[in-house]
Amino acid sequence: MADIFRVSPEGxxxxxxxxxxxxxxxxxxxxxxxELPVIDLRDITDPDQNRRKAVAKSICDAAASAGFFYVRxxxxxxxxxxxxxxxxxxxxxxxxLEEKMEFDTSATLITMAIIRSIKIRAYLLEPVRCGQx
Length: 133
Hints:
Elements (H helix, E strand, L loop, with lengths): L4 E3 L5 E5 L2 E4 L14 E3 L8 H17 L4 E3 L5 H17 L2 H5 L10 E5 L2 E5 L10
């Protein structure tokens, strides 16, 4: 497990993520947050590419700063959202760290799926990494 955690040159503990090495902070730290960003997906299908990129940038920023975020105006049925929360709880509470680390997020490109009724239509922004937005 030596490749998952390390001590930074500044002396604090870091964990390897798909976004690179991230500082591990205590829940008691003043750096810790208890709020998650809320991303509005309304403009993800807008004909204006700048509006779509703005949504993608807000997702990247939230993922880099908080690591998690909520979305609204996504069109996902409530039943599916409930199922996602069940699986998320299973991932974070039931799996060991070794099992969690098997999920590779380092090669993820920005793709957005808009669910309309039962059909899924994917809108692919130009495949770029967050730093290129």
